[in-house]
Structure formats: structure tokens, C-alpha cells
Amino acid sequence: MKTISDTYFDLERELYNTHDICLINCHFQGLNDGESPLKECCNVHLFNCDFDLRYPLWHDKNVCIESCQFSDKSRAALWYSSEVKILNTKLFGVKAIRECQNVKINDCQIISNEFAWKSEKIKINNASLSGEYCFLLSKKLEVKNFNLIGKYSFQYIEDAQFDNCHFKTKDAFWHCKNVIVKNSVIDGEYLGWYSTNLTLINCKIIGTQPLCYCQKLKLIDCEMINCDLCFEKSDVNAAITNRIISIKNPKSGHIKVKGIDKIINDINFDEKMIDTDND
Fold it and tell me: How far is CA 136 from CA 28, 120, 157, 162, 241, in A?
């Protein structure tokens, strides 16, 4: 593997189709403002490099990115790439990952709208993300120890697992399929509408009108804070550990709840499906 250190790159496709290369303390910036410096590359190791140019890593394979920084000018950093490891790195450009496969992200800070769209087999551990519309239409996600601030998150995702996460996001998990969220906090309005086979285990759910129009929805030992108008037109089986504000027109299933202030029944559903400790 060839090693290049302490070098500036700013030409268009300057390292195009390079294979077996290690770049250390290199800088992708300069007056020429060239795009796509590492396009169509294979077996690339980047260590402590700075990226300030657009579209740096497209159509690449076997890439390790360690202790690097992608500025807000490095838009669309990784597209159509596979077998990627991103370690201890700052990703600050919009649309940082799209249509990628087999991506591992550890110990990273991410500020990126439209992050990780249409991607598959992404594993994340110990990372934070600020951005809107993250993970749209992505599949096979494994996410642990993850903090998110944004809107419209995880829409249309499939086959995903989340553990020990904190999400502050509205309209999350809309139209998702086959998703499990464990030991997490989900803080935001309109959670999980139109989802199929969404399971929440030992979670804290905060915000108005959660979990409506769902199919095969499960809640296991979850706490619901400031939640009203819950479960409208949903097929739901739930065990809720606290008293909640209101449930509105659930479609089917069974809801066990510590207590409830109001049941709204506009469709003549069988209220026996709600099991409460109300006096």
C-alpha cells in the first residue's frame, strides 16, 4: 500500500481510480476547487485528513476513514460506495451518505441533513447526528448508543434495530417496517404513523398523537409522557407503565395501561380492549 502524507489536493478527480493507498494528514482543499478527488477508488485508508471539496468519495470500495474531518463544504461525501468504516470522524456536509452498503460508523459526530438515504447494512455505535430527513428508505440498520436531533427521521426504513438511543425528532419512523427500538427515549410529535411491525421495548415515548394508523404495533413496558390521542386506527398490543392522557379510536388488539384520563370513542370500538387500573 502506497502512503502519501502532508499533501494538498485540489484538482478535479486528482486521485481518480487509485487503489491501495494510505493518506495521512492530507488536505482536500485549494484554489482549484476540484470535485470528486477519490472517485472510483479501492482499498483506501484515510487518517487525520481534512475534506473541504464536494463529492470526495463516490463509487469506492473498501475504505477506512479514521480521525478525519469533512467540512460543510464537502457535500455528498460518500455515495454509491461499499465496505466503508468511519471511525472517530466529523461528518459536517449535507447528504453525507447515500446509496451505500456495508457501512460501519463508530465514535462519530455528524451534522448532515438528508443523511444515509437509500442505504443498506449500516451499523452505528456511539455517535451523534443533527439533521433532518435522516435514513430515508434505508434497510438493515443496527444502531446503538446513538443521539439524534432532527425531524422526519427513519421514514420508510425496513429491518432495523435500535438500542440505548435518544431521539429528539418529530414524524419519526413513518411507514417503517420490521423495526425494534429498545431501552431508548423517543421525544417528538406524531411518532410512527403508518408503520408495520414496529416494536418498542422499555422505551420512554414523549409527545402528542403517537402511533396512529399502525399495523402489528407492539409496546412492551413502555412509559408514555405527555401523550394524547394515542393509537388512532392502530392494530396495537401494548403494556404501558404509567397513566396517560388519552387514547383515541384504536382499531384492534389489547392495551394495558396504568391509568388513563380519557378514552375517545368515535367509531364504536370495543373498549374492553383497554385494560386500565382506573378506579
Answer: 29, 11, 6, 16, 31
The model's pLDDT over 78-112, given as tens digits with 9 standing for 90+, comes to 999 999 999 999 999 999 999 999 999 999 999 99
Residue type, 185: V
Single out the residue of 76, 144, 70, 75 nearest to residue 109, CA to CA: 70
Instruction: For residues 35-44, give the mean pLDDT.
Output: 98
Query: pLDDT tens, 237-254?
Result: 999 999 999 999 999 999
Count CB neighbours of 66 within 10 A: 17
Cell numbers given for 183? 431501552
Contact 100, 76 (CB under 8 A): no
Please tell me the distance from the alpha carbon of residue 110 to that of residue 15, in angstroms, as a whole number.
25
207 sits in the region (left: phi over 0; alpha: psi -120 to 50; else beta) called left
pLDDT of 165-196, one tens digit each? 999 999 999 999 999 999 999 999 999 999 99
DSSP codes joined into one string, the chain: -EEEES-EE-STTTTTT-EEEEEES-EE--TT--S-TTTT-EEEEEES-EE-SSS-EES-EEEEEES-EE-TTS-S-EES-EEEEEES-EE-STT-EES-EEEEEEEEEEE-TTTTBT-EEEEEEEEEEE-SSTTTT-EEEEEEEEEEEEES-STT-EEEEEES-EEEEESTTTT-EEEEEES-EEESSSTTTT-EEEEEES-EEESSS-S-S-BSEEEEEEEEES--SBTTT-EEEEEEEEEEEEEE---EEEEEEEEEEEEE-SS---GGGEEE---
